[in-house]
Specification:
Blueprint lengths: L2 H11 L2 H9 L11 H10 L4 H9 L3 H10 L7 H8 L5 H12 L5 H6 L1
Helix pairs in contact: 3-5, 4-5, 5-7
């Protein structure tokens, strides 16, 4: 799957109620409001792809970044890359997913913790 198709799918899955709830909790406007379960289903349809994950991340869109977290494998990222990405997080749900799906399982997590 390429970036335009992934973004189109995310937009189709968007829900105004979820978007409003996320915005109320500080997510901002750059989001589609995709339900977390729908994000997980979409991620299962896509072959893990670090390049697509990186492209999704760079959009700054909340849903795209959450999908990126599901598409990356901890071994795909170096400790400096993780450190750079974590500094770009702006929403609590993104930080939770990033920590649980990537940092927690990364081989360099202890070194990152000590920084």
């Amino acid at each position: 799957m390429k970036l335009p198709e992934a973004l189109r799918r995310l937009e189709e899955l968007g829900d105004d109620k979820v978007k409003a709830q996320n915005a109320k909790r500080g997510a901002g406007d750059n989001q589609f409001g995709v339900r977390r379960g729908d994000l997980r289903k979409l991620a299962k349809e896509i072959t893990p792809d670090p390049a697509l994950a990186h492209a999704l991340w760079l959009t700054g869109n909340l849903d795209a970044q959450l999908l990126a977290v599901l598409l990356w494998k901890p071994k795909d990222l170096s400790a400096p890359q993780l450190d750079e990405l974590v500094r770009q997080l702006v929403f609590a749900d993104g930080a939770d997913w990033f920590g649980n799906y990537l940092v927690k399982k990364h081989r360099g997590k202890e070194a990152l913790r000590l920084q």
